[in-house]
Amino acid sequence: MNKKTTIYDIAKKLDTTAATVSRALNNNPKISASTRKLVLETAAQMNYKQNKLALALQSGKSGNIGVIVPRIDSNFFASVIRGIEDELQPEGYHVIICQTHENEKREIENINTLLNAQVDGILMSASNVSKENNSIIKRVIEKNVPLIFFDRKKNIDGVSSVTINDFEGGYLATKHLIGEGCTKIAHLTGDQSLEIYENRNNGYKKALQDSGIEYNEDYIIQTKSSVEAGRQAVEKLLKLKNPPNAIFSSSDFAALGAIQELKEQGIRIPEDFCVFGFGNEPFTKFMELSISSVDQSPMEMGKMAAQVFLEQVNSTEKFKIEKKVVLNPELHIRKSSLRHAL
Amino acid sequence: MNKKTTIYDIAKKLDTTAATVSRALNNNPKISASTRKLVLETAAQMNYKQNKLALALQSGKSGNIGVIVPRIDSNFFASVIRGIEDELQPEGYHVIICQTHENEKREIENINTLLNAQVDGILMSASNVSKENNSIIKRVIEKNVPLIFFDRKKNIDGVSSVTINDFEGGYLATKHLIGEGCTKIAHLTGDQSLEIYENRNNGYKKALQDSGIEYNEDYIIQTKSSVEAGRQAVEKLLKLKNPPNAIFSSSDFAALGAIQELKEQGIRIPEDFCVFGFGNEPFTKFMELSISSVDQSPMEMGKMAAQVFLEQVNSTEKFKIEKKVVLNPELHIRKSSLRHAL
DNA sequence: CTGTTAGCGCCTTCAT
DNA sequence: ATGAAGGCGCTAACAG
Asked: Which of A154, A225, A317, B185 is the most exposed place for a label (fewest CB within 10 A)?
């Protein structure tokens, strides 16, 4: 097993010193063109490759950035990560992914191991927002490691974030339903400790209010983001003395479940009942009865998060940059909510 | 910005030496219980965290493994990566992801930067199989970096791989179609330089042969894995003087496109025409007309690949281990191909 | 321009 | 059981 060739090896061969070789390799101006050429040639010939680890230790920058997500096998997070990787790879960064599986302990562990691995930055979608792990967040900030939240953020001073305007998404979707003539609109929401669901919920409320529709507590159902949960929510809703005639769901999966259940109950969509989802999962547009949904442009989100990181790390400013990017959601209106022609 | 505390800092504070601290921290037996306790305590108190970079440089192991995929925002690859990360994270490894976007140059670049970053292993799904980058593969092998292919492998001596039995998948799907009474079965295949498509194609052929059905060259259409490509394929097929009455598609997306086109042409599924896909993408089971598909158990594949890597890296054997794991595909039979009750 | 020296933080002989 | 020294591979500071 032939050992790696180092700059010392090539220095020895050229009867010079490692410093000179290093300079030649790094386009340092303080070196003659001739020796540079010589070094470059023999380096190539000896098949020299820089050991990034040594560079990392010496410079304190590993060239790695950590990305923490609840899970990677979801279209949304995978797309965000794609955006991040596409943007950071050309800049010479490697992307390390960590999954929390919505487990706060894992989240803390992940941050710790990333810090110990000397990552140059952390981009994360927080699994939850309990106070507890704010101490770990503090550690990140103290170590001066750029931290950027995406999608699920925590409100912390000095920490940048890239999110979509969930409020606006909820507002527009609900407004659309109202425009289609829906008068009794239910809302499937998620974990209220997460801002994103709270904001979508608030957008929904505001839309009702702006249209003079009374807010009905019974129409708000908290569900998991799953098909089954959507079905169960509809079961509950249809049992009300005054059942709704539309649903704005914070999850595409729940929206799908809702549609399945509605159909089984013989309710026609969109004639009798409209459904609007959130997330624009691929399947929403593939369905025969395609599902209207709010697009979150996840890839854009990833790219933006990466750019914010790059700005931050390349900044020469003494003070910290805090940047809050808010992307606009986009309505994809499809059959499940479309009564009138567009 | 408070600098990190090192073992020297804590050595100084305890009026001892870094070596002792190191020993205490690493459960080295050659140290007294008392000093160990003392070191551990003050380490905790000074909030010491090991710098993995230094360890990596000195040990030659970075604790990172690289995963190379065509793209991450596909359910299949995302699921494989999930499996890998779930398996490797408990072992203390970090997973670096690289996308090639099916670009061979990117693939080579990725391998090179991963090697320079001193990854402890590379798991990859090859974007293609041209001879050209076998030299880079050779470099990986020479450097003794464990290399494991998954899904899209190259046949190289001494290199392990985890794949599914694509031949069997193609065979079973086709057999099923025949069992449903389909007599003229077309096949949508992919890039023939990739073994996976070749194998699925061969399984298809064998199934026909075993059932005494003649192979018809006109029924083989090479398509990209996209909805649009599937539609176009159907257009072509229906123009034949003797059009088929079933399709086995190597791609779920092409299968979906095929179904859309067939429906538009007024052809009833599954009564007049059966369709079978490959990949078991989430949407296949969500459709109202659910699509039959071959499941590749991607998460299992990722877990297996990770395990093979661990075996390899933990092995004390002098000789290289070459392990070829082949997972069994599983048929998910749904409406698009189900005429008889199960 | 080039060589010398030193250090990034850690571990591991080799002495003691 | 502990200390001293050296090295992983590289770059930066300081001399010449």
From this structure: A317
State the nearest residue by CA to the C1' of D11: A58
Q: Does the predicted TM-score (pTM) go above 0.85?
A: yes
The pLDDT tens digits of the residues spanning B27-63 come to 998 899 999 999 999 999 999 999 999 999 999 999 9
B320's tokens: 């290289």
Taking CB atoms and an 8 Å cutoff, what residues of chain A touch B89?
A: 98-99
Q: What is the largest CA-CA distance in chain B?
A: 92
pLDDT tens digit sequence for B111-143:
999 999 999 999 999 887 665 668 889 889 889
Q: How far is A209 from chain B (nearest CA, A)?
A: 34
> 224-283 in B: which are within 8 Å (CB) of A?
227, 256, 282-283
Is the minimum CB–CB distance between B49 and chain A shorter than 8 Å?
A: yes
Strands (E), chain A: 64-69, 94-99, 121-124, 147-150, 160-164, 185-189, 220-222, 246-249, 274-278, 292-295, 324-327, 330-332
Query: From CA A325, how far away is CA A315, in angstroms rounded?
Result: 17
Residues 6+ apart with CB under 8 A from B267: B273
Answer whether A99 sits within 8 Å of B116, measured CB to CB: no
A266: left (phi over 0), alpha (psi -120 to 50) or beta: left
Q: How many CB pairs under 8 A join A and B?
A: 143
Is residue B256 within 8 A of residue B291, CB to CB? The reply is yes
Secondary structure of A7-32 as H, E, C letters: HHHHHHHHCCCHHHHHHHHCCCCCCC
Total residue count of chain A as it appears in this document: 342
- Listed as ranges, the nucleotides of chain D within 7 A of a protein C-beta are 1-13
Provide CB contacts within 8 A for B64, sequence distance 6+.
A64, A94, A96, A117, B93, B94, B95, B96, B117, B118, B119, B120
Structure tokens at B331: 């048929």
